[in-house]
């Protein structure tokens, strides 16, 4: 189930079997009729995906970090990025109690890890827990995507390799870069499948994506690490300011997990750094990533709704 907790599935199936006469009963959860233009019968029914974003320590003012535990933040651009894909966000506060974190995770359809700088302490521990939750949920057959950007990708690399020293230094602070595609066959089924070939070509020749990081991982180190190379496939690489090449986009082989060292959210929603590309092409790249992240969940919600809402829908599916 994409929009409702898993434990409601039997209830929905029961409702579907009982037919429309039960639909108005109090306490009943109704799913919208897929494909209908009409307003939902009950405006309180919410059928769009919800994404959890883990907050980063500090108050977010100019990237200021402190050791205070009373504040944490999510850059607004990450929330807008998810909203641009047609979903909403709830914050997963990095230092809230475990049971509250797990309760929130049970209510969201996917997770985003933001950029930032903190690589240890309670924040890293929470990222580890949420990452394990993502794996477990998918292993249990519930599609539960994760999109990890910049620091998020670095932390996932540390977790998967079980090596906190796996990262290397690169010079890519406030830098617009290209994306190079070392293996076009690996793009099949990936986020880049929805890109027009012209846009792929432009990505590899024009600086359409925003980098802002001091760490990363080289293709060589990723390939030579058994855990990383069996978990991820490399979709793109990028050169830093000195021409040193690092991995800039990966997808997991067996999980709906996408990681970028670069910042898709910035091209449409951030203006503070002068190098951020804002061209029509750069905006399109961002929008493709937002659509890709959220659209897998829309398909899931659509098929669940069609299946469970109305007996006639079930008939047409089984016909
Ligand atoms: C946070 O605490 C650590 C460990 O006590 C210390 O090394 C670090 O400088 C502190 N950071 C800030 C921004 O106060
Ligand atoms: C390119 O990607 C395909 C599909 O993921 C894979 O089978 C193939 O081994 C890759 N080739 C190289 C040279 O890495």
Helix content: 25-40%
Distinct bound molecules? 2-acetamido-2-deoxy-beta-D-glucopyranose
In CATH, the homologous superfamily goes by the name Class I glutamine amidotransferase (GATase) domain
Number of structural units classed as domains: 1
Name the CATH architecture: 3-Layer(aba) Sandwich
Principal-axis shape equals globular
Instruction: Classify the beta-strand content into a percent band.
Output: 15-25%
What is the strand tally?
Answer: 11
The class by helix and strand makeup works out as alpha/beta
The largest sheet has its strands arranged as 4-1-5-6-11-10-9
Give the biggest sheet. 7 strands, mixed
Helix and strand run: HEEEHEHEHEHEHEHHEEEHHH
- Extract low-pLDDT stretches: 1-32, 301-319
Please write the CATH class name: Alpha Beta
Helix count, per DSSP? 11
Beginning-to-end CA distance, first to last residue: 23 Å
CATH topology: Rossmann fold
List keywords for this structure.
319 residues; 11 helices; single chain; 11 strands; alpha/beta; seven-stranded mixed β-sheet; Rossmann fold; binds 2-acetamido-2-deoxy-beta-D-glucopyranose; disordered C terminus
């Amino acid at each position: 189930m994409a929009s409702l907790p898993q434990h409601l599935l039997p209830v929905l199936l029961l409702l579907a079997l009982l037919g429309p006469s039960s639909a108005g009963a109090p306490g009943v959860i109704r799913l919208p009729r897929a494909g209908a233009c009409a307003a939902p019968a009950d405006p309180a029914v919410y059928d769009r995906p919800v994404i959890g974003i883990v907050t980063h320590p500090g108050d977010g003012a100019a990237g200021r970090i402190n050791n205070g535990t009373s504040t944490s933040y999510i850059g607004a651009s990450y929330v807008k990025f998810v909203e641009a894909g047609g979903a909403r966000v709830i914050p997963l506060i990095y230092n809230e109690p475990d049971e509250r974190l797990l309760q929130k995770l049970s209510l969201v359809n996917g997770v985003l890890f933001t950029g930032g700088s903190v690589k240890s302490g309670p924040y890293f521990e929470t990222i580890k827990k949420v990452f394990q939750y993502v794996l477990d949920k998918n292993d249990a057959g519930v599609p539960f995507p994760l999109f990890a950007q910049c620091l998020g990708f670095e932390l996932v690399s540390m977790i998967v390799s079980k090596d906190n020293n796996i990262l290397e230094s690169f010079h890519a602070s406030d830098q617009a870069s290209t994306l190079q595609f070392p293996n076009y066959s690996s793009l099949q089924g990936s986020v880049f499948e929805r890109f027009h070939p012209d846009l792929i070509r432009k990505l590899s020749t024009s600086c359409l994506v925003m980098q802002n990081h001091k760490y990363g991982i080289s293709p060589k180190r990723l390939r030579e690490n058994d855990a990383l190379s069996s978990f991820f496939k490399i979709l793109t690489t990028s050169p830093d300011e000195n021409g040193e090449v690092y991995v800039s986009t990966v997808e997991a082989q067996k999980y709906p997990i996408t990681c970028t060292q670069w910042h898709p959210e910035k091209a449409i929603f951030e203006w503070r750094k002068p190098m951020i590309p804002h061209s029509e092409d750069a905006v399109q790249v961002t929008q493709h990533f937002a659509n890709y992240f959220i659209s897998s969940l829309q398909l899931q919600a659509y098929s669940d709704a069609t299946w469970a809402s109305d007996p006639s829908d079930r008939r047409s599916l089984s016909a």
